[in-house]
């Protein structure tokens, strides 16, 4: 059998070689086609799509253009969304904004879909090229989703473990609290109440059984812990979700069996304390007091108590704490510790190190009457006993608190607070023997765990002491992250800033990249200025351009008049840590070249001079969760999203195979889609493609092809249209300039002599009004792709003029002419100077001028198109009469002052 490639190759080659149809030239479709036959052999769908595309290209090219334009619009929309999401992810990473990891997963999922659509739309626009770009997208997407994937977890038995059966290998099943209490009773042989653990396996099964994972992640992805309303609302939703769920029968059976085993061994109907033992708890991050504890639980309430503890994982306090520490929800599954309640005479806490004097060799015991809950809640002033740690502990000091109330059991479950008898309020709640015994146990625990411990204990009605918990003592050497440090509001001593006396030169705008930078102002008006950027410059310009990446290592900050936090440059600036302030409106006018300034992007201010207190401030770089799993995972994700390698389209690496990140794919696709639209005119043939002839006072053959509301609806049946029939905003702006009353069009015909000469010289016969010699425009309401044929020179213009600033652009090319090379070069120089002085980035080679104006507001694009119309009208014969280099500067000045007819200054000549 013949392969698809072997079958279609000769067929399509023959189709594209028939007379009157476009030829497959070397370096064009033909090379692409035969080079990719092997790929097409393995993709029959691609072959069918290509065959459809080429059929339309031959027989209905207007359809191809419309579909290409729709793909172009879609690509730009997804490009904008992808940059917005990339900016949001980078901001979370670089500014250490505290969010749940579900936010990252949600943002990446939408981002990935946008990038895929970008690649798909580029494929629609250029179906025979860049075929391997999708493969690179899929590769990076696979890597990122692998990083984002949650840790493996088990939701099979055991759902419960008795404490004597718990070993170190069960750490991930039982959590830190249960693991420690099991070791205290098993390894150290110290007294603990009997109990069991409901494992993390049960938690995972509970979530899966009730199909809660997606619902939980959805709510977490909407959480803003900086907004208390959001925090409370989403916490309530999640708690209600857990409490409304059913405990799976297998888990319920296992819990009841374990409970009954405790009853049987004790010989009575036990009451239990149901406590959290989540992974991550009682470790470097204690989660102290953040989770739920349910006390004095009878067997008939154990299932509800279990759900209450699980739901406590989503309390506002627990959510805020976990996210501040950079834990993901799946990294902190909830195991539950169930201990027999002790009807405590006294209870409290023991610190095996004195926090005020760590080197003093002392431990402190805090004690109150009844259950220890009122102590840890801070509601009772305890007795404090200081013990000297030695081979035989010595009570060194004691201070009695006023213990006016205590917590005791309720008969039918739960607890209540009652008054302490008057005679006991001032009495010590713990005798000396108990004090010294606890101190001895505390030293053993500290030795076992090789660090100071925070220990909970209680004294039973028979005078028996029990240990309830032991965890690392939070000494303050590695404190919990402080609240967000905000400039001017932070109370951390190291972050306080003296009042700044330097004058504020500029205030306002949008922070695109956080930080503080200082140095001399350097203004960039044209791309060539980048060659002269000094070290540590504060770059000031009209708008941020991705071309500035090449001097990023020289920049201390960037300030622009316009721009977007989601633009290409802002994204890279965050990656490099360069502060950027955009949309100031007046930066280029208010900041003087060479003047030293300090930019505080977070304050949105530019100060005169170097503000030393800002430059030395510790708040410039936040580092609150840098060592968390959240940051490590996000850093890995960002490494496949943000780095930009494909900066220069002229570089040989600017190919799909050069992509090393999603950003590279976006950059490549954006560049190629704009190029594709820009060069439509070059590939257009003499067929009118369903276009309508444009009739105006300007003597020019002009055909318009509407691909989306570029013409009014009532012109559908017309073959010829006028200006009143047009609603394409960029064409109207350009035509306004071309129609300026000072431009003289009389006795001047825009005939494509170059094309006519080529046809005549090759022996062809063609009418002067042939469509092949006309100018063409592809247009919509906000888009214009124009191919103007001005005699012996041509103009290509591609522009988008919309409310979406980051998508707006003008790409302009001017080449050729009827004069000699010297005259054409002088006209090109004239064009170059005008374009540079009006804000375009310009490249000139001989008589060829390429210019671009990017990322500007709609009003600015309209203004520039009007100017381009006047410029094209003013230069129509200039290569014929511009003879001296010194004329160029004079003509430039006169044009900028409103003169648009220069031929009257000379003898003139006709093109």
Helix content: 25-40%
Broad shape: elongated
Low-confidence stretches: 1-48, 50-61, 476-496, 618-624, 684-689, 747-772, 906-911
Q: pLDDT average, as an integer?
A: 81
Indicate the proportion of strand residues: 15-25%
Q: Calculate the terminal CA-CA distance, rounded to whole Å.
A: 60 Å
Counted beta strands: 30
Q: Count of helices?
A: 28
Largest sheet: 9 strands, mixed
Query: What integer value in Å does the Rg equal?
Result: 38 Å
Structural class: alpha+beta
Question: Which strand order spans the largest sheet, edge to edge or round the barrel?
Answer: 24-22-23-25-26-27-28-30-29
Structure description:
With 911 residues, the chain is α+β, with helices and mostly antiparallel strands. 38% of the residues lie in helices and 18% in strands. The strands form 5 sheets. Strands 24-22-23-25-26-27-28-30-29 form a 9-stranded mixed beta sheet, sandwiched between helices. The protein has an 8-stranded mixed beta sheet with strand order 14-21-20-16-17-18-19-15. The radius of gyration is 38 Å and the shape is elongated. The two termini are 60 Å apart.
Task: Record the SSE blueprint.
Layout (H helix, E strand, L loop, with lengths): L3 H12 L13 H7 L1 H5 L2 H16 L1 H34 L6 H25 L7 H16 L11 E3 L8 H16 L8 E4 L1 H10 L3 H8 L7 H16 L5 H18 L5 E5 L16 E5 L4 H10 L4 H9 L11 E5 L5 E6 L10 E8 L3 H4 L6 E6 L5 E6 L5 E5 L5 E5 L12 H18 L3 E7 L5 E8 L31 E4 L2 E4 L2 E9 L12 E5 L13 E6 L7 H9 L3 E3 L4 H4 L5 E5 L4 E4 L3 H4 L13 H13 L20 H17 L1 H4 L8 E3 L7 E7 L11 E2 L7 H10 L14 H9 L13 E6 L2 E8 L2 E8 L8 E8 L4 H17 L3 E5 L2 E7 L3 H17 L3 H4 L3 H12 L15
Parallel strand pairs: 16-17, 17-18, 18-19, 22-24, 23-25
Antiparallel strand pairs: 1-2, 2-5, 3-4, 3-5, 6-7, 6-12, 7-8, 8-9, 10-11, 12-13, 14-21, 15-19, 16-20, 20-21, 22-23, 25-26, 26-27, 27-28, 28-30, 29-30
């Amino acid at each position: 059998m013949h392969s698809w490639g072997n079958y279609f190759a000769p067929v399509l080659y023959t189709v594209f070689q028939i007379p009157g149809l476009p030829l497959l030239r070397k370096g064009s479709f033909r090379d692409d086609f035969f080079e990719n036959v092997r790929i097409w052999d393995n993709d029959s769908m691609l072959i069918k799509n290509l065959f459809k595309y080429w059929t339309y290209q031959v027989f209905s090219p207007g359809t191809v253009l419309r579909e290409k334009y729709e793909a172009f619009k879609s690509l730009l929309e997804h490009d904008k969304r992808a940059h917005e999401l990339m900016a949001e992810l980078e901001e979370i990473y670089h500014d250490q904004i505290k969010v749940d990891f579900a936010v990252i997963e949600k943002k990446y999922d939408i981002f990935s879909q946008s990038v895929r659509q970008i690649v798909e739309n580029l494929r629609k626009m250029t179906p025979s090229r860049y075929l391997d770009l999708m493969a690179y997208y899929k590769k990076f997407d696979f890597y990122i989703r692998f990083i984002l994937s949650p840790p493996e977890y088990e939701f099979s038995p055991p759902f419960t473990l008795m404490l004597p059966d718990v070993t170190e290998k069960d750490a991930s099943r039982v959590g830190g609290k249960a693991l420690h209490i099991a070791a205290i009773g098993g390894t150290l042989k110290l007294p603990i109440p009997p109990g069991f653990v409901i494992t993390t396996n049960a938690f995972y099964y509970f979530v899966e059984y009730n199909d809660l994972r997606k619902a939980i992640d959805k709510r977490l992805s909407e959480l803003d812990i900086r907004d208390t309303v959001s925090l409370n609302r989403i916490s309530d939703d999640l708690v209600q979700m857990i409490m409304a769920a059913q405990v799976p029968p297998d888990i319920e059976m296992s819990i009841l069996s374990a409970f009954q085993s405790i009853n049987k061994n004790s010989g009575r109907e036990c009451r239990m304390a149901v406590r959290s033992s989540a992974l991550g708890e009682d470790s470097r991050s204690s989660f102290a007091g953040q989770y739920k504890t349910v006390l004095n639980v009878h067997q008939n309430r154990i299932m509800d108590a279990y759900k209450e503890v699980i739901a406590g994982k989503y309390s506002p306090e627990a959510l805020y704490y976990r996210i501040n520490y950079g834990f993901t929800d799946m990294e902190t599954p909830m195991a539950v510790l169930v201990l027999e309640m002790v009807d405590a005479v006294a209870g409290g806490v023991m610190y095996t190190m004195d926090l005020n004097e760590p080197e003093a060799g002392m431990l402190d015991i805090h004690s109150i009457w009844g259950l220890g809950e009122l102590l840890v809640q801070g509601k009772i002033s305890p007795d404090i006993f200081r013990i000297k740690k030695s081979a035989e502990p010595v009570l060194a000091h004691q201070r009695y608190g006023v213990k006016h109330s205590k917590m005791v059991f309720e008969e039918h479950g739960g607890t209540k607070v009652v008054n302490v008898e008057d005679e006991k309020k001032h009495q010590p709640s713990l005798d000396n023997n108990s004090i010294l015994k606890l101190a001895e146990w505390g030293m053993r625990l500290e030795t076992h765990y090789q660090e100071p411990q925070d220990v909970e204990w209680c004294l039973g009605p028979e005078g028996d002491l029990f240990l309830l918990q032991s965890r690392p003592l939070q000494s303050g050497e590695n404190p919990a992250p402080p609240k967000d440090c905000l400039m001017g509001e932070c109370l951390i001593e190291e972050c306080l800033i003296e009042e700044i006396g330097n004058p504020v030169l500029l205030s306002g705008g949008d922070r695109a990249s956080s930080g503080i930078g200082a140095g001399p102002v350097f203004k960039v008006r044209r791309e060539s200025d980048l060659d002269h950027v000094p070290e540590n410059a504060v770059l000031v310009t009209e708008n941020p351009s991705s071309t500035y990446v090449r001097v990023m290592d020289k920049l201390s900050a960037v300030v622009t008049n316009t721009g977007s936090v989601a633009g290409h440059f802002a994204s890279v600036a965050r990656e490099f840590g360069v502060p950027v302030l955009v949309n100031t409106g007046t930066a280029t006018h208010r900041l003087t070249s060479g003047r030293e300034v300090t930019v505080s992007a977070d304050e949105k201010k530019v100060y005169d001079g170097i503000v030393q207190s800002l430059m030395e401030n510790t708040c410039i770089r936040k580092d609150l969760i840098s060592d968390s799993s959240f940051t490590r995972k996000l850093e890995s994700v960002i490494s496949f999203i943000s780095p930009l390698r494909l900066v220069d389209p002229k570089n040989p690496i600017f190919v799909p195979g050069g992509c090393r990140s999603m950003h590279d794919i976006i950059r490549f696709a954006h560049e190629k889609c704009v190029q594709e639209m820009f060069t439509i005119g070059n590939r257009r043939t003499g067929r009118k493609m369903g276009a309508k002839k444009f009739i105006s006072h300007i003597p020019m053959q002009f055909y318009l092809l509407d691909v989306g509301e570029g013409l009014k609806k009532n012109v559908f049946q017309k073959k010829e249209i006028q200006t009143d029939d047009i609603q394409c905003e960029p064409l109207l702006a350009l035509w306004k300039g071309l129609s300026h009353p000072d431009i003289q069009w009389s006795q001047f015909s825009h005939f494509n002599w170059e094309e006519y000469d080529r046809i005549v010289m090759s022996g062809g016969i063609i009418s002067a009004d042939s469509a092949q010699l006309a100018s063409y425009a592809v247009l919509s309401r906000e888009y214009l792709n124009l191919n103007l044929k001005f005699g012996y020179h041509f103009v290509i213009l591609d522009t988008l003029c919309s409310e979406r600033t980051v998508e707006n652009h003008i790409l302009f090319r001017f080449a050729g002419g009827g004069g000699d090379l010297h005259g054409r070069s002088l006209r090109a120089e004239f064009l170059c100077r005008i374009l540079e002085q009006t804000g375009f980035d310009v490249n000139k080679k001989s008589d060829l001028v390429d210019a671009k104006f990017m990322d500007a507001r709609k009003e600015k694009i309209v203004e520039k198109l009007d100017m381009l119309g006047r410029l094209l009208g003013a230069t129509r014969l200039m290569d014929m009469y511009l003879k001296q280099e010194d004329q160029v500067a004079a003509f430039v000045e006169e044009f900028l002052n409103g003169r648009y007819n220069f031929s009257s200054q000379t003898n003139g000549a006709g093109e």
